[in-house]
Amino acid sequence: MGLTSKLDKLKLKSSNDEFDAPTSKLDTSLHDQLSDTDDVDEVDNEGQSILMGIISQLRPGCDLSKITLPTFILEKKSMLERITNFFQIPTILLEANEMDDDLQRFILMLKWYLASWHIAPKAVKKPLNPVLGEVFACYWDNLPNDNKAYYVSEQVSHHPPKSSYFYLVPELKIRVDGVVIPKSKFLGNSSAAIMEGWGHVTLGERDEVYIMNQPNVYCRGILFGKLKTELGDHMYVKCPKTGFEADIEFKTKGLISGTYDAIEGVVRNSKTSEALFNISGKWNEVMEIKDLKTGEKKVLFDTASSRLQKPRVKPVEEQWEYESRRLWKPTIEGLSKSDHTLATDEKFKVENEQRQQAKKRAELGVEFHPRLFRSVKDLEESIQDLEYILYKNIDLKANAKTLTESILDVFPILPGQELHDHFHVPGYKKAEQGA
Predict the structure, then answer these.
(1) pLDDT value of position 10
(2) Alpha-carbon distance 1 to 155, whole Å?
(3) How confident is the model at residue 225 (pLDDT cuts 50, 70, 90)?
(4) Residue 347: which H helix or E strand, with range?
(5) What DSSP string describes 206-271?
(6) Among 141, 228, 242, 419, which has the minimal tally of Cβ within 10 Å of its Cβ?
């Protein structure tokens, strides 16, 4: 397919939202109304001129964060919210927490992490870039056995973009600390989001930490051919306490041979170097696991059977002005109507305000500091790869009531909660004060 026909084909369709499960009664107004436009490519009469505008900015190897992208490739959510995909199949995580066998528990943790990658728009879409200081918070009050979970995230850096997040299941003493650092590059007919950053999943009842990274994301067919998103390169999951590790390769399709969306990997005991299981299949279809001792092969996870549990948020009118859904509401409404002029104008307003704030900070010689997270200290060797961590000390040895009160004191997650008096104090100062 030549470039001209590609431009014609890229008179694109609408934005996406990746959640399929029933929505919260507390926030059904905007996001539920947009579901009819999800996962659909829509014809846009401005497609050719917009795409040519992108092409004129591109150079091989250039940083895509400097490129103004057209709104028709934008997903109707911020990256801070998209991170919650990891937590939408909680039953596997909770099952892993209950498993007494070390190896089987590791396999369940690997299964839980692999299970989330298929939760993505069917069309090629990119989440909205969070602005500096943007916050997204949500909760789940419908986990198995009446458990609840809480999530807070903040854009702690803009250049380069860094999204820090924290997740907690108080009753089960499960916490997740992480940072997502996407570094985008233009590679000719493809773009790549090199996903730096790590996640630490702590099972407090077992005093175990699972450390994991992410595969990279590639968008193929920008100039010619079919638009396609691929995951590529290696994803690692390791548990230092037990010594079990997994190396999963997300394979990209070759020009002549190969297939889309394949994975291939191995689970090892790093203490003995013994290979224990092979992992194979497709990350968005069926994944299989083979026991290398017995030769038995079985399904690890079938994405067709997944039931997603959608996060719940406060009503938009109760949200702080820089919470994701309130901040981007006018832009998302434009995307939902396929009104890309409106979406572009509203997106520009948000970004221009950020530029003005950055200019003002520069003039005053003031440095930005996150409100909910603090920088990791030099002596905190085990969490250096996180770069930032929640400012409040969440001690998993505390009881569930205390843990719940602690996370709700960090940010008003639940409906009816209001911003705390100390909210605008930088996270590092609150940490020093023991707030």
Answers:
(1) 35
(2) 39
(3) confident
(4) helix 340-364
(5) TTEEEEE---EEEEE-SSSS--EEEEEEEEEEE-TTT-EEEEEEEEPPPSSS--TTEEEEEEEETT
(6) 419
Average pLDDT for 20-32: 41
In whole angstroms, how far apart are CA 145 and each of 89, 123, 141? Answer: 15, 36, 10
CA gap 70, 88 in Å, rounded: 29
- 403: tokens are 């843990």
The answer, yes or no, to whether residue 189 has pLDDT greater than 70, is yes
Alpha helices in 290-339 (DSSP H): 324-327, 329-336
Question: pTM of this prediction?
Answer: 0.88
DSSP structure string for 375-423? EPPTT-GGGGGG-EEESS---TTS-HHHHHHHHHHHS--STT----TTT
pLDDT digits (tens, 9 = 90+) for 342-401: 999 999 999 999 999 999 999 999 999 999 999 999 999 999 999 999 999 999 999 999
Domain of 193 in residue numbering reads as 3-334
Q: What is the end-to-end Cα distance of the chain in Å, rounded? A: 60
Strands 74-78 and 126-128: parallel
CATH number of the structural domain spanning residue 26:
2.40.160.120
Q: Extract the tokens encoding 150.
A: 């809480």
Structural tokens at position 126: 């990119």
Report the DSSP beta bridge partners of residue 287. Answer: 281, 301
Angle between helical axes of 329-336 and 340-364 (0-180°, round to 10) = 160
- 226 falls within a domain: yes
pLDDT higher at 60 or 129: 129
Number of domains in the chain: 1
Q: Is residue 56 part of a domain?
A: yes
Residue 410 lies in a domain: no
> Is the pLDDT reported for residue 42 higher than 60?
no
Predicted pLDDT at 428: 97
Is 70 inside a domain boundary?
Answer: yes
Backbone dihedral region for residue 365 (phi beyond 0: left; psi -120 to 50: alpha; all else: beta)? left
